[in-house]
Structures are given as structure tokens and as C-alpha cells.
UniProtKB/TrEMBL annotation:
Residues 46-286 form the Radical SAM core domain. Gene3D superfamilies: Aldolase class I. Keywords: 4Fe-4S, Iron, Iron-sulfur, Menaquinone biosynthesis, Metal-binding, S-adenosyl-L-methionine, Transferase. This is Aminodeoxyfutalosine synthase. PROSITE patterns: RADICAL_SAM (PS51918). Pfam families: CofH_C, Radical_SAM. It is an enzyme of class 2 (transferase). GO terms for biological process: menaquinone biosynthetic process. Its EC number is 2.5.1.120.
Length: 362
């Protein structure tokens, strides 16, 4: 069984049905292999940033069964933020030390195309130093379809309006059969990848998520990871920050307040194995993020021993995963994050959105 690990580590071209056997290895064997890659890249550094999530609206034209955030029967509190609300939140966070705003919304049919671009332009005008990470590929696809712009035009307009990078949301699970069940009508997997590739070709960075732990199989997860590996720009471009995926983020499904009927959930061991496998297979994606909002801080810190090197950031207000039951509504205190990382034997490194080091908390 070790053979499959050696083959995976040597970059052999195996398919998802072969690579799924990695899950049969014990957690320590997998973890050790992933940790040695992680340690070689970053030693004991564990990255985080000071960021602020802003979700302008929860009114959504789509109905993803896993989503507890959008306004629906189980969450009947529709809202729409104004530009002034968004600017006030971004400014307060900036004054509080945030270096990034992560702006993603539902697919709100009431907002105009101009409204979106104006938000980015005005945030950039008010806070030129802040990094704007905004619009998932699913939102780009929504704007393309609703306003007939073509996704390349949407991306060009985002760039012109001041968006610096794209978040990794909307990827869910690439398998189209699963997508048809969990998020029918949303961006297709092929289009999600095309949008990111085009963004990369403009010299920009983005992230890639994978929503796991619901109805997908382990083979679907491996297939998702392999498609990301294939879509990534060549290694030399990524290293010089010239466009590509910066981080892979496995998002653990939160099961409350939604319409997905899930019978089995991954154990902590299976979650860690998924993170290790991602580190082993994604040799061309620099960072693996253990997103504390879905894993909880304890598992997110342990995941640093299993291939992850990043925990995301302080967030301040988290609305998507907390709607599904995660205990992340109020973000994470910076000093507490630093304490947790140190307490686990890692060196906290505050980074910017492109993983340049800002401060090492030795
Ligand atoms: O795409 C929705 C997921 C994503 C649930 O790029 C859920 O740095 C778990 O993409 N349980 C949005 N997840 C969040 C996201 C993200 C988060 C942090 C950092 C970055 C980054 C990106 O949240 C959606 C969807 O996959 N999601 N509902 C749920 N019940």
C-alpha cells in the first residue's frame, strides 16, 4: 500500500481511482509525508492575516442545498447593505489593523452591474492600502449570465475597479453529478476553472476551495484536487506571484439550517487525511489553508502537523459558515490566534494577502 504514496510523491500520473487508495493509509504515514513537504517549504511557520469578511447581501437567485447563509425558509432574514454600510465596515476594520477585505455576496438579482464595480472602486478610493479580495467565480459567472457581459469583461472590469485577488469560493465539488444535486444552476466546474485561469492570465492570484464532508465520495475529492493541479499555472509563475492559485482551502461542510440531507460525516481523522492528501498532490499550489471557521481552532492547529501551513485570519465577522452551525460568527482575536499557534509549537507569521511576510511572532 506504501507504493501508492511513493508513486503520488514522485508525481506519477495516476487517476482518482488509483489515488483514492491514499485514504487507506494510516493517518500517521500520510501525515508524515505531508508534514515533510510542508516543513521543507515553511519550516515551523504558520501563516495568518488580519482580514475582514464583508457579505453585502444574502438575497440569492440560486438555491444551493448546502447553504444556510442565503435568505430562505430556514433563514428568513434578507438584507442588503448600502455602499455607505460597506465603506463604514471596511474603514472600521482598516483602522483596526485589517489589511484585506474579502467581499463576497449572494447572487442578488436586485444589484446592478454598476453597483458591484462601484463598491470596489469606492473602497479602493477610500482605502488605497487595503487589499480587495472579491467575487467568487460563481459570482463572476452570475454577473456574466445576468448582464450578458462575458466573464472576461467582468474580470477586466473588476481589475479596473481595484479588485486585487479572487477568493476560492463557489468551487464546491467539481463532479457535475454532485453539483446537479447540491447546487443546480450554479457555475459549472469547467467554467469555474476557466474563470480562474483567465484571471491568472491577467497576472493575478486567486484561491481554490473544495466543500467536502457532505454527499460527495472520496473519489470526487481526489478528482477535484487533480483538476486544480492541472489548472494551476506553471510553478515558476506562481513563485514570482505572477498569477495562479495561492492557496487550496478544503472547507468542511457545516450541517445545520440547510436543505442537504447528509447521512454520514467525516471523522477528524478523515478530515486530516484529506488535508494531507491535498498537500501531497498539490505540489504546484504553494499553500494549504486549514480554515479555522470550518474546522474549529483545535483541528485547524493540529492540521498544521498534517500538511497545512495557514489558518486564514481574524475575519471579524463570519456569516456563511456560522449560518451553518460553525462557531465563527465573531471572528478570531489576533492575540488568541497567535497564542494558539505558538502553543502548538508553530511560529505565527502575519502575512499579507499574497503571502508576503509582515511580522514573525518568534
Ligand atoms: O463557496 C457554504 C461554502 C464558501 C457552507 O478564498 C459552506 O481565502 C461549509 O469560499 N458549510 C464561501 N461551507 C467561503 C469561501 C472562503 C472562505 C474563506 C477563505 C476563502 C479564500 C474562501 O463557503 C462557498 C461554499 O463552498 N459554504 N455553505 C456550509 N454549510
Amino acid at each position: 500500500m506504501q507504493d501508492i504514496l511513493e508513486q503520488a510523491l514522485s508525481g506519477e500520473n495516476l487517476n482518482e481511482n488509483e489515488l483514492v487508495k491514499l485514504y487507506d493509509l494510516d493517518i500517521f504515514t500520510l501525515g508524515k509525508a505531508a508534514d515533510s513537504i510542508r516543513t521543507q517549504k515553511y519550516q515551523k511557520k504558520a501563516f495568518f492575516n488580519l482580514n475582514r469578511h464583508i457579505n453585502p447581501s444574502n438575497i440569492c437567485a440560486d438555491v444551493c442545498k448546502f447553504c444556510a447563509f442565503s435568505a430562505h425558509r430556514k433563514n428568513p432574514n434578507p438584507y442588503e447593505m448600502s455602499l455607505d454600510d460597506i465603506l463604514a465596515q471596511a474603514t472600521a476594520s482598516y483602522n483596526n489593523g485589517a489589511k484585506e477585505v474579502h467581499i463576497v455576496s449572494s447572487h442578488n438579482p436586485n444589484y446592478t452591474y454598476k453597483w458591484y464595480m462601484n463598491v470596489f472602486r469606492e473602497v479602493k478610493k477610500a482605502l488605497p492600502q487595503i487589499h480587495i479580495k472579491a467575487l467568487t467565480a460563481a459570482e463572476v459567472d452570475f454577473l456574466d449570465r445576468k448582464f450578458g457581459k462575458g466573464y472576461k469583461q467582468v474580470l477586466a472590469d473588476m481589475l479596473e475597479a481595484g479588485v486585487d485577488s479572487m477568493p476560492g469560493g463557489g468551487a464546491e465539488i467539481f463532479d457535475e453529478g454532485v453539483r446537479a444535486y447540491i447546487c443546480k444552476g450554479k457555475v459549472s466546474s469547467t467554467r469555474w476553472l476557466e474563470i480562474h485561469r483567465h484571471w491568472h492570465s491577467l497576472g493575478k492570484m486567486s484561491n481554490a476551495t473544495m466543500l467536502f464532508g457532505h454527499v460527495e465520495s472520496k473519489v470526487h475529492r481526489i478528482n477535484h484536487i487533480l483538476r486544480l493541479r492541472e489548472a494551476q499555472s506553471p510553478q515558476d509563475k506562481v513563485d514570482s506571484k505572477q498569477g495562479g492559485f495561492n492557496a487550496f482551502i478544503p472547507l468542511l461542510y457545516q450541517r445545520h439550517n440547510n436543505y442537504l440531507d447528509v447521512k454520514e460525516f467525516p471523522s477528524g481523522q478523515e478530515i486530516l487525511k484529506t488535508i494531507s492528501i491535498a498537500r501531497i498532490l498539490l505540489s504546484n499550489i504553494p499553500h494549504i489553508k486549514a480554515y479555522w471557521a470550518t474546522l474549529g481552532i483545535n483541528l485547524a492547529v493540529v492540521a498544521q502537523e498534517f500538511g497545512a501551513d495557514d489558518l486564514d485570519g481574524t475575519i471579524e465577522v463570519e456569516s456563511i459558515q456560522s449560518a451553518g452551525g460553525a462557531k465563527s460568527k465573531n471572528g478570531f482575536d489576533k492575540d488568541e490566534l497567535i497564542f494558539q499557534i505558538k502553543n502548538a509549537g508553530f511560529t505565527p507569521v502575519e502575512r499579507d494577502s499574497l503571502y508576503n511576510e509582515i511580522r514573525v511572532y518568534a
